[in-house]
Amino acid sequence: MALKMDNITDTLTITQPDDWHLHVRTGTILKTVIAHTAQQFARAIIMPNLKPPVTTVEHALVYRNEILAALPEDSDFQPLMTLYLTGNTRAEEIKKVAESQQVFAFKLYPAGATTNSDDGVANIEAAYPIFAAMENHNVPLLIHGEVTHADYDIFDREKAFIDNHLTEITRQFPALRIVFEHLTTQDAVQFVESASDNVGATITPQHLLYNRNAILAGGIRPHFYCLPILKREHHRQALLTAATSGNPKFFLGTDSAPHLSHLKESACGCAGCYSAHAALELYAEAFEKADALDKLEGFASFHGADFYGLPRNTGTVTLEKRAWTVPMQYGETDNLITPLRAGEQLHWQFVNH
What does the alpha-carbon distance between residue 186 and residue 189 come to, in Å, rounded to a whole number? Predict the structure, then answer.
C-alpha cells in the first residue's frame, strides 16, 4: 500500500489508480483528451459507443491502436477495450473476448439510454442467451442501468431497471460478473451491497459532488447534465457513504465524456460531463469533504483491479493541496470542450506521476 499523507505539506500519495469507465471518442477529440487520463491513470476501461459502435474484437483492436497512437510519446497508459452489446451479438464473439488479451468486457446499453445508444439492446430478456454465454466464459457485463420507456420519470429510471431487469439477471445468472456502472441512487447502492461478490459498481466524481440542483438551480447548466442524471441530495449522500466505506464492491469510474461545447450548449444538449482533466482532484475533494481521504486509495487504485482480476499497479501518484483554476475550455477553434468546473478553483492538484 502506497498511501502517504503529509499533513505538514498537505500532500497525498497513493498507488497509481485506474479509471474503470471512460469515454475518449475518436479523431480530433481523442487527441485532445487522452493525455489527461494518461497523466493520472495507468489503465482505463474504454467505452465502445462510437459511431458506428465497437461490436467486434477486430474493431476494438483497431480502436485500441488509434488510442495508443494518440498518447504522448513517453506514456505507458494501457486502454482496456470493451465491446458494444447488441441484439446481434453472437456466442463466438464472446469466446473471442474471453481469449483476447486486450478486450475485457461487453457493455450493455438499453436502446436510447444515453449518447450513441440507439444500437443498444431493446429487449433485455432476449439477450439472456448472450448473458449465459458470458457467464460460461467469465466475461464481465458492464451495465448502463436505466429503463428508457417514456412512461418512467427520468429520475426513477435507475430504480426501475433494478426492479424490472437487474434483480432477475442476477438471479438467473449468479456467476455472471456484473459492473453496475455510474450509480446514482441509494437504491442502486443497496442493491450492490446486498448482491453477491460477482456484482461491483463504479461511481463518478459528479455524482459524489453534486445533486440535481447543480443542473437546474439558477438556470440550466448544461455541463452538469449527464445520464444517468444527477439525483436528490439523499442519493448523493448514499453514494458518498458507499465510496468512502472501504467496501471493495465500489470503485472509481469517471464516465468522463467529452462533447464539443457547442453541442452541449445547444437547444437539445447532449449528456455527459468531461472530468478527465481533473479526475483525481475531484475525487479527492469529495473524499476530503467526507473526512475519508484514507479511503481514496482503495476506491481508486485497488478495488477495480481486484474485481477485474488484474494486478494492482506498482507506481504512485501525488496530489498536493494547492489552489488552481480550471481552464474554460480545452481543444482548438472548432473542437472546444468545456470541462467540469470550468473557470472555477480546485484545491487539490495533481503534481507528479
Answer: 5
